[in-house]
C-alpha cells in the first residue's frame, strides 16, 4: 500500500561524543501552525458559545442596558424600585470602595441582572410561542388573524441573524401523548388491514393495555420527558440503530445522487478536488456555526439543528452487543480508497485549507499510483458491510494495538471517507432505466468492499466524474493494516454475506416527467398526500392487497427531535383505492373519496410532526416495559408488525441555491434506501421544481412476489389516473 512519509519533528542518536540532536524547522513550523489552528477553533467555539448562550439577545445589548440604567441613575431616576440602593448598602459593608465606585458598581450589577432577566423572559416567551402548532392544521392557503399575530410575536422574540444553534434552548420538548389517544389512533390505522375477528381481538388487547399496564409505563415516560431533553431520541438511536446486529449496508445506510443531467467535468480528479473542497468549506461554516438554521412558515419557525453536530469526523464503532458513535472535534485529513488501496490525504498546508487545484493534484497522484494492495487490504472494508458481531470480534482481536490500530484510527477519525470508483455511472438518455438502476445500486452497496459503511458518509467519485454519497444512518494515503493476513477469513466471510445481500437488491430509479407538484397544487392537494395515495393505489395494483405503510416524518419542531412514522394506509385511503379499482364508481365519487383520504393523510402527518404520532410513543412504552421486566401482549404484537411498504420523501432544503425554472438541467436525483421487509418495497421520492418527481424503488430478488420495475409501472399509471380525476391530463403542465 502507499505509505505516508511524514517529517519527523526531531531525531536523536547516542554517539561517543554525546547526544546528537537535529531539529527539523519545517516540522516545528507545522506543529506551530497546527497549534495555532487548534486555538483559533477554540476561540471561535468560545465566542459562538457566548453568542448562542445569550440569544435572542446579543452581547452588545448588555452595554445598551447598562448604559440605559446608568443614564437614568444620573438623571436622579431609580429604575430599580429600590434594588440598586439595596445593592449599594450591601457593598457598603465591605468598606473598600468609594461612594462613587459603589454607585457605579451597583448600577452595573443591576443592569446585568436586568439584562439576564430579559434574556430568560424572551427565551421562555419564544419557547411558549413555538409550542403552539395550530398553524399546521389550518386549511391550505389560508391564514387566520390569530396565526398572523402569532407569527409576528415569534419574529419579535426570535432576534436577528440567528446562528445554527441559536434556537436550541428555545425549542419546546417533545410532548408525551396520552395513552388512550395513541391506542385509539393505532387501532384506526390497522382497521383496514385486519379481518373483523382479528381486529376485535386486537381491540380487546389495546383496551386492556390502555387501562392496566399502559398508565404505569406512561408515568415513567412522563418522568423522562421532564428530565431528558427528548424522551424518544436516545432510545431510538440505541435500540433501533446501534443495537442492530445485521449489516448496515442496504439495511440501514442510504444514498444520495448527483445532479440528474448536469456533469460539470468528466475528469475524475478535478470533480473530486472541487467537491471535496466545497464539502470542507461547508464543514468550516458548520464548525463556526455560520449556517442558518432551517426555518419553516415563511422563515419563522425554527427546526432543531442538533443532528448537524456529528456530520463530520464521525464513525460508528462495532461492538458485540451494541455499537457506539465516535466523534472527534476536528480532523485534518480524509482517507481515499482506490483500487484496493487506502491513502491518507492531508487537507491543510501552512495553516490553510488546500485549494481545489491542490486537492485535484493529490487525487491525480493516487489515480496514477501503480502500487498493489497489501495482503487483505483490498477487501478490508467488507468488514463494515457484513454482520456487526464478527466485525466487532475481529476489531478487538486484530486492531486493538500497534500499527493496525494506528491505521484503523486514520480511517475512523478522518473527516470523511472518499472512494475513487473505477466504474462509470449516471443517467444515460439512451438507456435511462438501466443506467439509473445501476447508479443507485452502486451508491447503495458498490462492490461491498469499496465503501467504508461505518463512516458518517462515504463520498464517491466515479470514473466519468459523476458523484454520490453513501451515508450511515445512526449518527458519518493511510497505512491501513500492515499485517492483515491474520483476519483474512473474517474479511472473506463478511464479504460473502454482504455480496449475497447486495446481489439480492432489485432497484428501479426513474424520473417522472408527466407532471410535478405545480399541477398537484392546482388540484388543491398536498403533493406529499398525492404521492402517498398514488403509492397506495400502485401497491394494490401490484399485490392485490393493502399493507402496513411507513412514511418518515420529522419531529424537529422539538429539541433533539428526529423522526416519527405516518401510517399512510388508512380506512380512507383504502376506500379510495377500492373505488379506483371498481368500474362502477363514477369520477365524482372517486374524487370525493380521494379528497377525504388526502385530508386524513395530511392530518396524520401534522399529528406526527407535532408530537402526537403513534409509533415512537408505543416504542418508548415498550422500552420501559422491558426495563421493568413486564410483558405486554399488545406492545409485543404492535412492534412485530412488518412494514411491507416503507416510504420517505427527500426534502429540498435549500431551493434558493438554484432557480429550477431557469436552470431546468440542475435537478437533483435525490436518494434512496433498501427495503425494510424481505417481502416488501422501499420507496423514496423527491419533488424537484414544479414539473418533476424522482422515484427510487427497492425490493429483493429473493421474494417471488415483488418486482421493483413492475411496481414502477403501476406507480406511473396511478399518478396519471389520479391527476385525471381533476380533469388534468398527464402533460397538462400549463
In short:
The protein has 734 residues and is an alpha+beta fold. The protein contains 23 helices and 21 strands.
How would you explain this protein's 3D organization?
The chain is an alpha+beta fold and 734 residues long. The chain folds into five domains: 23-54; 59-161, no CATH class; 177-244 and 613-641, Fumarase C, Chain B, domain 1 (Orthogonal Bundle); 254-280 and 312-503, Chloramphenicol Acetyltransferase; 508-610 and 642-724, Chloramphenicol Acetyltransferase. The chain is 46% helix and 14% strand. It is built from 23 helices and 21 strands. A seven-stranded mixed β-sheet has the order 9-8-12-13-14-3-19, sandwiched between helices. Strands 15-21-20-18-16-17 form a six-stranded mixed β-sheet. Helix 10 crosses helix 11 (356-368). The longest helix has 32 residues, at 99-130. The protein is globular, with a radius of gyration of 29 Å. It starts with 9 loop residues before the first strand and ends in a 10-residue tail after the last helix.
Number of spatially distinct domains: 5
Mean pLDDT figure: 84
CATH class of the largest domain: Alpha Beta
Roughly how many Å is the radius of gyration? 29 Å
The CATH architecture of the largest domain would be 2-Layer Sandwich
Biggest sheet overview: 7 strands, mixed
The order of strands across the largest sheet is 9-8-12-13-14-3-19
- What is the fourth-level CATH superfamily of the largest domain? Choline/Carnitine o-acyltransferase, domain 2
Amino acid at each position: 500500500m502507499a505509505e505516508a512519509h511524514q517529517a519527523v519533528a526531531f531525531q536523536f542518536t547516542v554517539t561517543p561524543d554525546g547526544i546528537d540532536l537535529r531539529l527539523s524547522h519545517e516540522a516545528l513550523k507545522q506543529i506551530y501552525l497546527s497549534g495555532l489552528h487548534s486555538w483559533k477553533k477554540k476561540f471561535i467555539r468560545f465566542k459562538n458559545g457566548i453568542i448562542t448562550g445569550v440569544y435572542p439577545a446579543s452581547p452588545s445589548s448588555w452595554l445598551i442596558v447598562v448604559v440605559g440604567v446608568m443614564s437614568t441613575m444620573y438623571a436622579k431616576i431609580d429604575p430599580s424600585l429600590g434594588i440598586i440602593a439595596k445593592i449599594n448598602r450591601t457593598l457598603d459593608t465591605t468598606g473598600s470602595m468609594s461612594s462613587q465606585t459603589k454607585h457605579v458598581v451597583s448600577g452595573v450589577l443591576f443592569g446585568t441582572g436586568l439584562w439576564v432577566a430579559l434574556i430568560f423572559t424572551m427565551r421562555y416567551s419564544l419557547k411558549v410561542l413555538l409550542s403552539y402548532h395550530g398553524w399546521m392544521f389550518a386549511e391550505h392557503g389560508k391564514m387566520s388573524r390569530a396565526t398572523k399575530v402569532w407569527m409576528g410575536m415569534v419574529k419579535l422574540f426570535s432576534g436577528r441573524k440567528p446562528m445554527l444553534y441559536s434556537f436550541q434552548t428555545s425549542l419546546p420538548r417533545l410532548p408525551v401523548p396520552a395513552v388512550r389517544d395513541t391506542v385509539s389512533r393505532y387501532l384506526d390505522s390497522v382497521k383496514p388491514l385486519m379481518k373483523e375477528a382479528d381486529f376485535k381481538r386486537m381491540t380487546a388487547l389495546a383496551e386492556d393495555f390502555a387501562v392496566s399496564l399502559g398508565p404505569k409505563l406512561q408515568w415513567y415516560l412522563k418522568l423522562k420527558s421532564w428530565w431528558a431533553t427528548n424522551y424518544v431520541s436516545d432510545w431510538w438511536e440505541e435500540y433501533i440503530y446501534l443495537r442492530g446486529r445485521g449489516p448496515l449496508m442496504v439495511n440501514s445506510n442510504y444514498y444520495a445522487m448527483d445532479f440528474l443531467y448536469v456533469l460539470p467535468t468528466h475528469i475524475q480528479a478535478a470533480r473530486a478536488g472541487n467537491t471535496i473542497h466545497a464539502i470542507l468549506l461547508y464543514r468550516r461554516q458548520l464548525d463556526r456555526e455560520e449556517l442558518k438554521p432551517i426555518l419553516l412558515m415563511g422563515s419563522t419557525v425554527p427546526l432543531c439543528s442538533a443532528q448537524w453536530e456529528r456530520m463530520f469526523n464521525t464513525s460508528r464503532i462495532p461492538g458485540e452487543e451494541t455499537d457506539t458513535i465516535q466523534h472527534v472535534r476536528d480532523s485534518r485529513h480524509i482517507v481515499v480508497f482506490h483500487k484496493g488501496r487506502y491513502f491518507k490525504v492531508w487537507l491543510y498546508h501552512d495553516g490553510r485549507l488546500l485549494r481545489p487545484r491542490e486537492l485535484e493534484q493529490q487525487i491525480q497522484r493516487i489515480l496514477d499510483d501503480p502500487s498493489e494492495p497489501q495482503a487483505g487490504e483490498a477487501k478490508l472494508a467488507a468488514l463494515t458491510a457484513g454482520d456487526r458481531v464478527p466485525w466487532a470480534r475481529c476489531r478487538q482481536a486484530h486492531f486493538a494495538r500497534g500499527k493496525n490500530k494506528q491505521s484503523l484510527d486514520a480511517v475512523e477519525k478522518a473527516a470523511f471517507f472518499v472512494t475513487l470508483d473505477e466504474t462509470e455511472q449516471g443517467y444515460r438518455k439512451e438507456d435511462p432505466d438501466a443506467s439509473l438502476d445501476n447508479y443507485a445500486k452502486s451508491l447503495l452497496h458498490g462492490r461491498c468492499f469499496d465503501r467504508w459503511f461505518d463512516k458518517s458518509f462515504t463520498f464517491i467519485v466515479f470514473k466519468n466524474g459523476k458523484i454520490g454519497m453513501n451515508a450511515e444512518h445512526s449518527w458519518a494515503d493511510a497505512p491501513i493494516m500492515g499485517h492483515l493476513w491474520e483476519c483474512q477469513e473474517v474479511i472473506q466471510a463478511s464479504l460473502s454475506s454482504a455480496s449475497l445481500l447486495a446481489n439480492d437488491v432489485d432497484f428501479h430509479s426513474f424520473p417522472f416527467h408527466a407532471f410535478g407538484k405545480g399541477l398537484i397544487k392546482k388540484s388543491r392537494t398536498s403533493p406529499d398526500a398525492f404521492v402517498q395515495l398514488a403509492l397506495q393505489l400502485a401497491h394494490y395494483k401490484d399485490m392485490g392487497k393493502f399493507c402496513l405503510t411507513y412514511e418518515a416524518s420529522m419531529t424537529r419542531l422539538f429539541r433533539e427531535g428526529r423522526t416519527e412514522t405516518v401510517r399512510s394506509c388508512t380506512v380512507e385511503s383504502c376506500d379510495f383505492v377500492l373505488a379506483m379499482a371498481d368500474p362502477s364508481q363514477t369520477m365524482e365519487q372517486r374524487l370525493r373519496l380521494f379528497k377525504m383520504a388526502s385530508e386524513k393523510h395530511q392530518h396524520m402527518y401534522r399529528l406526527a410532526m407535532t408530537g402526537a404520532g403513534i409509533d415512537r410513543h408505543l416504542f418508548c412504552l415498550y422500552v420501559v416495559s422491558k426495563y421493568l421486566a413486564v410483558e405486554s401482549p399488545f406492545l409485543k404484537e404492535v412492534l412485530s408488525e412488518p412494514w411491507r411498504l416503507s416510504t420517505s420523501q427527500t426534502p429540498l432544503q435549500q431551493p434558493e441555491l438554484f432557480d429550477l425554472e431557469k436552470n431546468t438541467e440542475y435537478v437533483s436525483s435525490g436518494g434512496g434506501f433498501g427495503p425494510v421487509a424481505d417481502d416488501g418495497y422501499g420507496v423514496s421520492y423527491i419533488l424537484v421544481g414544479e414539473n418533476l418527481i424522482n422515484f427510487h424503488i427497492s425490493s429483493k430478488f429473493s421474494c417471488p412476489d415483488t418486482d421493483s420495475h413492475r411496481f414502477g409501472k403501476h406507480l406511473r399509471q396511478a399518478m396519471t389516473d389520479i391527476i385525471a380525476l381533476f380533469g388534468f391530463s398527464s402533460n397538462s403542465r400549463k
